[in-house]
């Protein structure tokens, strides 16, 4: 037993060194002013379990996401990124405010991918005195809590809520992802740049995310001279039959079909049914289809996933900063797998909070909001570098990723293809 305990201690020490090596040097830059209004952030005094060592206290970040349910992959990966960033920051000396070092901790709430549960989670965090929140994963859930964040003066950073209307000028809501109109522009530009003149759209008319992406893609196609030859919708994001929609895509002669859905339907239903209907062209999704590989049924014909692409926020091999490299190596050490874009965006939200708190010299929500509203600040994070625009949305590039299958392989391959930008 003693030998095992020593091995565990050495492993823990090694992990701490690894985390500290990737920490931000900004923790040594002591902010001048003292923390403002402790009522606006959940902060515990020194001596708590999380605030051991030389920490003056612990700042608790709220985290909201779908930890269970059909979209649990999103919440799990965001949480993984958040927890890695928290461990790294604490190992590197914490958050420096007013000459004191503060540890970070998290309080996580499961919204199950449901708007009502998301609102309940937000209210519970506010009741616990938490003024800085990461969440939620989807646009629908995030839209249920933005008004509460603004009315209660709670800072909210969504890692992956992409609907344009989530952030407005000078409010308390920010994000580390780009917005839907930008994704739609990138998708339309990809179609135009690659010579597709006849495209189709299959989307969900009742969903904020899907309908918003449809609007942006359609508008950008019109500007770029790409002809939308067919458009079909479904009633819910959980529809399981897309046969009629793709029969119409084939009849219209679409060469590319834009499919703004989530991974839980693209893997088992939408992609296979598109191919069964005779559509052999390009299927182009957005960030929501990432993780499709986790929902492909056993025994499926994997060749149907060829020519299936999607716009994304992050690719391991295309994000070329020191922070990105450290993030990837530390993530693999901690979780034993490569990170995806949700891991990176959750991680980025914590780094953004740290920089804002240190710039403000405070963990008070109002002060952190003011620091985040400074559009001149450049954040170097896992997904690259960005500054916020006047609405709290990053100005950044995107990436094109895709799935492919070679005969004899045991699974499909997901790979990055190129960086995408709008001129």
Q: What's the structural blueprint in terms of helices and strands?
A:
Blueprint: H1 2-21, E1 42-45, E2 57-65, H2 72-91, E3 95-97, E4 100-110, H3 115-127, E5 132-134, H4 139-143, H5 146-152, E6 155-158, E7 173-175, H6 180-193, E8 198-204, H7 208-224, E9 227-234, H8 243-252, E10 256-258, H9 263-276, E11 282-285, E12 308-312, H10 322-335, H11 341-360, H12 365-372, E13 379-381, E14 384-388, E15 394-395, E16 398-404, E17 413-420
Parallel strand pairs: 2-4, 2-5, 5-6, 6-7, 8-9, 8-10, 10-11, 11-12
Antiparallel strand pairs: 1-2, 3-4, 12-16, 13-14, 14-15, 16-17
Helix pairs in contact: 1-2, 1-10, 2-11, 6-7, 8-9, 11-12
């Amino acid at each position: 037993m003693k030998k095992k305990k020593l091995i565990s201690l050495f492993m823990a020490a090694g992990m701490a060194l690894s985390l500290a090596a990737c920490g931000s040097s900004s923790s040594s830059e002591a902010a001048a002013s003292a923390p403002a209004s402790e009522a606006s952030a959940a902060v515990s005094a020194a001596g708590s379990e999380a605030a051991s060592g030389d920490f003056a206290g612990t700042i608790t970040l709220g985290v909201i996401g779908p930890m269970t349910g059909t979209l649990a992959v999103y919440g799990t990966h965001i949480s993984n990124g958040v927890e890695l960033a928290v461990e790294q920051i604490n190992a590197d000396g914490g958050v420096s405010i007013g000459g004191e070092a503060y540890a970070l901790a998290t309080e996580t709430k499961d919204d199950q991918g449901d708007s009502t549960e998301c609102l309940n989670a937000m209210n519970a965090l506010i009741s616990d005195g938490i003024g800085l929140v990461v969440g939620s994963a989807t646009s629908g859930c995030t839209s249920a809590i933005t008004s509460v964040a603004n009315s209660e003066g709670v800072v909210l950073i969504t890692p992956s809520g992409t609907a344009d209307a989530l952030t407005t000028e000078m409010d308390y809501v920010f994000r580390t992802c780009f917005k839907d109109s930008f994704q739609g522009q990138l998708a339309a530009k990809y179609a135009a740049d690659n010579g597709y003149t006849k495209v189709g759209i299959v989307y969900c008319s009742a969903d904020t995310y899907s309908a918003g992406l449809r609007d942006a893609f359609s508008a950008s196609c019109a500007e770029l001279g790409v002809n939308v030859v067919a458009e079909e919708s479904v009633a819910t994001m959980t529809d399981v039959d897309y046969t009629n929609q793709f029969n119409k895509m084939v009849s219209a002669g679409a060469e590319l079909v834009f499919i703004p859905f989530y991974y839980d339907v693209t893997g088992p239903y939408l992609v296979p049914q598109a191919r069964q209907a005779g559509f052999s062209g390009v299927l182009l999704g957005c960030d929501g289809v990432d993780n499709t590989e986790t929902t492909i049924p056993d025994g499926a014909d994997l060749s149907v996933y060829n020519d299936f692409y999607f716009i994304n926020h992050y690719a391991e091999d295309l994000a070329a900063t020191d922070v990105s490299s450290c993030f990837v190596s530390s993530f693999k050490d901690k979780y034993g797998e490569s990170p995806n874009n949700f891991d990176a965006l959750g991680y980025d939200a914590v780094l953004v909070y740290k920089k804002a708190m240190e710039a403000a010299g405070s963990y008070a929500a109002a002060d952190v909001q003011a620091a985040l509203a400074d559009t001149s600040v450049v954040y170097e994070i896992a997904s690259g570098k960005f500054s916020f625009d006047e609405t709290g949305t990053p100005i950044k590039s995107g990436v094109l990723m895709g799935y492919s299958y070679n005969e004899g392989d045991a699974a499909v391959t997901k790979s990055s293809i190129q960086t995408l930008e709008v001129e």
